[in-house]
Amino acid sequence: xxxxxxxxxxxxxxxxxxxxxxxxxxxxxxxxxxxxxxxxxxxxxxxxxxxxxxxxxxxxxxxxxxxxxxxxxxxxxxxxxxxxxxxxxxxxxxxxxxxxxxxxxxxxxxxxxxxxxxxxxxxxxxxxxxxxxxxxxxxxxxxxxxxxxxxxxxxxxxxxxxxxxxxxxxxxxxxxxxxxxxxxxxxxxxxxxxxxxxxxxxxxxxxxxxxxxxxxxxxxxxxxxxxxxxxxxxxxxxxxxxxxxxxxxxxxxxxxxxxxxxxxxxxxxxxxxxxxxxxxxxxxxxxxxxxxxxxxxxxxxxxxxxxxxxxxxxxxxxxxxxxxxxx
Length: 327
Ligand SMILES: Nc1ncnc2c1ncn2[C@@H]1O[C@H](COP(=O)(O)OP(=O)(O)OP(=O)(O)O)[C@@H](O)[C@H]1O
Ligand SMILES: [Mg+2]
Known about the structure:
Bound molecules: adenosine-5'-triphosphate, magnesium ion
Number of strands: 13
CATH architecture of the largest domain: 3-Layer(aba) Sandwich
Number of domains: 2
Oligomer: single chain
Strand order of the largest sheet: 5-6-7-3-8-9
Largest sheet: 6 strands, mixed
Radius of gyration: 24 Å
């Protein structure tokens, strides 16, 4: 069942354009020039119940704008949006009770008060029955390991602890649809992993539908089978992450630690050497040749250690964008 549908969705901003410098400022007093920014431009997609979709693209691609249209904070310039059969912008309470927008860069917690106070406020706002509130809060704070710090003022918590509390605050009303805008931004690697694991569990436990944006490909790899790639407000790719990788990075990386120096002239025979600095040697080879070349290297050279790795998602995405450059 389709839970989130956009049909030729566009959001354009009119921005005031000023010529540079003092003269420009004076001129703009008399004649204002406007420019249209097509933040989201003719975007159509459909997401089914329980799906976790990664929304990826460089800075300014239109990710946050799309999420704001989906959660009803922005009114589309053109096109249609439907979430759980509601028109988000109407912000009906029956709609708001079933969704949540979590922004890693913004917070809803009261700074000087314990997180628990914000939770209690949300309980009132969303009219969550006491029994359900206690059950969900117990479950979420258990999963995130924050039971002991619910009563400490938020300003005394670490960044990661605060993010966990933000998540709890956003999930207390058990939303069916979650819009996560960079939920792991600024967190250390361990905390990123914790949040990822938690989101995965949440998706499975509540069959929640999730759209996630992140600049950390680790988040996307861990959580999303499907990705939508967007740039300049337009969709460049919508499909399986594994297909995107296979199409745009059909290679593997062999990493070798040598036990003795070798004749460098021989290196080109084995593929594209990405780096060689004794004892480390890194080769990039075609996906399908990986095993054959690895065994050849093992036979011919004094190898202490060898690993075959998939390309880094960061590289795949960077390659994808440079292949799809505008103009
Ligand atoms: N309120 C606004 N007024 C004018 N232009 C805006 C406004 N909000 C966003 N934009 C522009 O719309 C475009 C898309 O912005 P958006 O925030 O959706 O990008 P993003 O993909 O979320 O980027 P990032 O990865 O940096 O968060 C950008 O060019 C941005 O400058
Ligand atoms: Mg953004």
